[in-house]
Automatic annotation (TrEMBL):
One CC-aspect GO term: neuron projection
Alphabetical keyword list: Cell membrane, Disulfide bond, G-protein coupled receptor, Glycoprotein, Membrane, Receptor, Transducer, Transmembrane, Transmembrane helix
Transmembrane regions listed in the UniProt entry: 40-67, 79-104, 124-146, 158-180, 209-232, 253-271, 291-314
Record-linked CDD domains: 7tmA_NPBWR
Protein name as it appears in the record: Neuropeptides B and W receptor 1
Lineage: Eukaryota, Metazoa, Chordata, Craniata, Vertebrata
Membrane topology term: Multi-pass membrane protein
Length: 332
């Protein structure tokens, strides 16, 4: 365990760095504060509450529109729907994380501990893997357009099967975290954290490397390769074969997927970079370092409430469908 006792002397000053799992599971929030309360201790629950409220509202709207509006039944929107469901699940349980933070201990029992850890890890892995699938889909669309071929296999039903496979794959990935998620009695306070067997430091490093590789390096590398190949094909099509470019709708969808990906990387890259720092550097626990760690965690949480606004700004079909559904519900 790497629990922090936050007082003026900072007695637990040998910290392994900006944690990855420890941040997401609040292992740094075991405060004992005889002196002035740090500003971030007050700010963090406010930020989390805003993320929760905005995320629930936005993702609920996305799920509702995609399920109810006939025009939204597209392959890309199946993946966006699953992305919104993953974000919705996380924002639904965020109040429990806020309560854990404010109470300075875990009062909800071991079953809830494992459940919250599982949902937290679903949020960590599912977003990037659904974006990977969306990138593969965009690449296949571009290739088919360049070669003037029809994609008979690219159907709404096939997209639902692929989404189910992604959920199954992510479930397998997060199983170790569910197993290691336990209640730990830390000086009389119950904490919901990862309890690793001996040698604990080795398991600690292995868990961070595992998340870094499976949750960032592999999917992001795949996405970068796909988009590089896609841009090369588009450039080749424009310069060499003098064919028509992708139509306006396909360009917009590709742009939307790219921007969603960029926002996801913006929110999650500091989180995964902190893993590298944690593995390679010994950082002293200071208020500044702990404040930075909470900022990184909040940034990763914020990704769960940003995507709905991207759909609203970038997708005309979504805006029109949302407007139409609202008008139908408010009509006498």
């Amino acid at each position: 365990m790497e629990n922090v006792s936050l007082n003026p002397e900072f007695p637990n000053s040998s910290c392994k760095g900006l944690g990855s799992y420890s941040l997401r599971r609040n292992e740094w929030t075991n405060f004992t504060i005889p002196g002035p309360i740090p500003n971030f201790y007050i700010a963090v629950p406010i930020i989390y509450s805003v993320i929760c409220a905005v995320g629930l509202t936005g993702n609920t709207a996305v799920i509702y529109v995609i399920l109810k509006a006939p025009k939204m039944k597209t392959v890309t929107n199946v993946f966006i729907l699953n992305l919104a469901i993953a974000d919705e699940l996380f924002t639904l349980v965020l109040p429990i994380n806020i309560a854990d933070y404010l109470l300075l201990q875990w009062p909800f029992g071991e079953f809830m501990c494992k459940l919250i850890i599982s949902i937290d890890q679903y949020n960590t892995f599912s977003s990037i893997y659904f974006l990977t699938v969306m990138s593969i889909d965009r690449y296949l669309v571009v290739v088919a357009t360049v070669k003037s071929k029809k994609m008979s296999y690219r159907t709404y039903r096939a997209a639902k099967i692929v989404s189910l496979c992604v959920w199954t794959f992510v479930t397998i990935i997060i199983l170790p975290f569910t197993v290691f998620g336990k209640i730990h009695n830390d000086w009389g306070r119950l904490q919901c954290v990862f309890v690793f067997p001996d040698p604990e430091s080795l398991w600690w490093k292995a868990s961070r490397i595992y998340t870094l590789i499976m949750g960032f390096a592999i999917p992001v590398s795949t996405i970068c390769i796909l988009y590089t190949m896609m841009l090369c094909k588009l450039r080749s099509m424009h310069l060499n074969i003098n064919a028509k470019a992708l139509d306006k709708a396909k360009k917009k969808v590709t742009l939307m997927v790219l921007i969603i990906l960029a926002v996801c990387l913006f929110c999650w890259t500091p989180y995964h970079l902190s893993t590298i720092v944690a593995l390679t550097t010994d950082i002293q626990q200071t208020p500044l370092i702990i404040g930075i760690s909470y900022f990184i965690t909040s940034l990763s949480y914020a990704n769960s409430c940003l995507n709905p606004f991207l759909y609203a700004f970038l997708d005309d079909s979504f805006r029109k469908s949302f407007r139409k559904l609202v008008e139908c519900r408010t009509a006498p």
